[in-house]
Automatic annotation (TrEMBL):
Family per record: Belongs to the ABC transporter superfamily.
Protein name according to UniProt: Manganese ABC transporter ATP-binding protein
Domain ABC transporter: 4-236
PANTHER family tied to this protein: IRON TRANSPORT SYSTEM ATP-BINDING PROTEIN HI_0361-RELATED, METAL TRANSPORT SYSTEM ATP-BINDING PROTEIN TM_0124-RELATED
Keyword Nucleotide-binding: yes
Protein's UniProt keywords contain Ribosomal protein: no
Length: 248
């Protein structure tokens, strides 16, 4: 089944077009890296797909339009900087919020729900921080809390905006383990990703974006020198990945 169909999607800020007629569809059960230079429109694309940013043109369809209550099926891990970390709540509560689709917003979570949230924290090695205020976490710890929330949410299609940004090697391993677990459960995941060198190891599909869709497809066919040069132009050098790209 197709998890996501995007047709002719365009979006603009103050009339400046930042996404230009994107058309692609993503198969269920795939792990896609969304790659492109700063300002390419990666975050905007995710927000436009989720209805958090207005579209100028285009249509979006999830699971061939077969889902009834969409919110339970979509998971979003925003960029860390886009979240209000001063909000007075603790780690376990943030993760438990991922269960509201199942609990219902007007009912209180019970012991079973807290247990599920706690188990998700264990998976990302954050159980010992369960009662900590979220304002008192490091960047990598914040990232893991959001992943735990995505895990308990049990959505079908996930969008993650730079989950690997600024995390150490150990946290990176934890995050990739979570992504692979989601994939093994048949979930579909789109991840905005900046480190070109890890793309082939992490993602089975890649979407190359620079305002327009440069290419989308299986990583071994699409993550090529010529498509990357087309995506980054001269900036590939600045990314510090030119040697790697030449080796492809
Ligand atoms: N709220 C906004 N108002 C005006 N312009 C914006 C706004 N948000 C983003 N833009 C512009 O839209 C373009 C796409 O931005 P976007 O954040 O989607 O890119 P990105 O690929 O996610 O970048 P990065 O890799 O730097 O996170 C950029 O030129 C950016 O300056």
């Amino acid at each position: 089944m197709t998890a996501l169909t995007v047709k002719n999607l365009s979006s603009a800020y103050q009339k400046k077009i930042v996404l230009d007629s994107l058309t692609f569809s993503i198969e269920e059960g795939t792990l896609t890296g969304v790659v492109g230079p700063n300002g390419a429109g990666k975050s905007t694309m995710i927000k436009a797909i989720l209805g958090l940013q207005p579209k100028m043109t285009g249509s979006i369809e999830f699971f061939n339009g077969k889902l009834k209550k969409l919110t339970n099926h979509l998971g979003y891990v925003p960029q860390r900087g886009a979240v209000d970390w001063d909000f007075p709540t603790n780690v376990l509560d943030v993760v438990t919020m991922g269960l509201y689709g199942q609990i219902g917003w007007f009912q209180y979570p019970g012991k079973k729900h807290r247990q599920l949230a706690f188990e998700a924290l264990e998976k990302v090695n954050m159980a010992e921080y369960a009662n900590r205020q979220i304002s008192q976490l490091s960047g990598g710890q914040q990232q893991r809390v959001f992943l735990a929330r995505a895990l308990v949410q049990d959505a079908d299609l996930y969008f993650m905006d730079e989950p690997f940004a600024g995390v150490d090697a150990k946290t990176e391993k934890t995050i990739i383990a979570v992504l692979k677990e989601l994939k093994s459960k048949g979930k579909t995941v789109l991840v905005v990703h900046h480190d070109l060198q890890t793309v082939p190891a992490y993602f089975d599909h890649v979407l190359l974006l620079n305002k327009q869709l440069i290419a989308y497809g299986p990583t071994n066919e699409t993550f090529t020198k010529s498509f990357l040069k087309k995506t980054y132009g001269g900036e590939i050098h600045w990314m510090g990945s030119d040697q790697f790209v030449e080796s492809l």
